[in-house]
Amino acid sequence: MVSNYLLPNKYKKVGWFLLIPSLVLGFLLTIGIEYNINTTVFAFWFDEIMEDLVLFSFIKENIYNEIIGVCLLISLALVAFSKEKNEDEYISRVRLDSLLWATYINYGLLFLAIIFIYGIPFQTIMIYNMFTILLIFIIRFNLVLFITKRQMENEK
């Protein structure tokens, strides 16, 4: 099966190279360890609590969160959407099944969060929700490939 919509395999290595430190820095950010990278950035929309709404302006902002978010999104996309070395119909099927599983789990967790979590913690959950679908996909996809490879080795 020809899969022209996937990136070449070499991007998977770049993705993993970015993903590991991005996850570590994202985890550190989650527990409150943050670096200050204050700079002037262009903002389409800015509304800090108790301040006036600012549209289409330059603001001074700590962009550490944005750098981590962009690195996570890029690295997750590179890992998730790069071809395997031997891309075949079985791997395409596992890829599709993993994406379906990731979608079900992601929206199941989101459903539970909508019902049971309120206020600022819900906003935190929504931030995590941006990354979880690709993360769940990568975990399940690689786990199924690992188990399949192991079973094939045991049969020989």
What does this structure look like?
- This protein is mainly α and 156 residues long.
- The protein has two domains: 6-83, no CATH class; 85-156, no CATH class.
- The chain has four helices and two strands.
- The chain has helices at 10-30, 64-80, 89-116, 120-155, and strands spanning 38-46, 54-62.
- It has a two-stranded antiparallel ribbon with strand order 1-2.
- Helix 1 packs antiparallel against helix 2 (64-80).
- It is elongated, with a radius of gyration of 19 Å.
Order of strands in the sheet with most strands: 1-2
Number of domains: 2
Count the beta strands: 2
Euclidean distance between termini CA atoms: 27 Å
Helix content: 55-70%
- Based on secondary structure, the structural category is mainly alpha
Order of helices and strands: HEEHHH
Strand content: 5-15%
Mean pLDDT: 91
- Whole-number radius of gyration? 19 Å
H/I helix tally: 4
Q: Shape from CA axes? A: elongated
**Unreliably modeled segments:** none
* Most strands sheet: 2 strands, antiparallel
Which helices and strands appear, and what pairs or packs with what?
Elements: H1 10-30, E1 38-46, E2 54-62, H2 64-80, H3 89-116, H4 120-155
Antiparallel strand pairs: 1-2
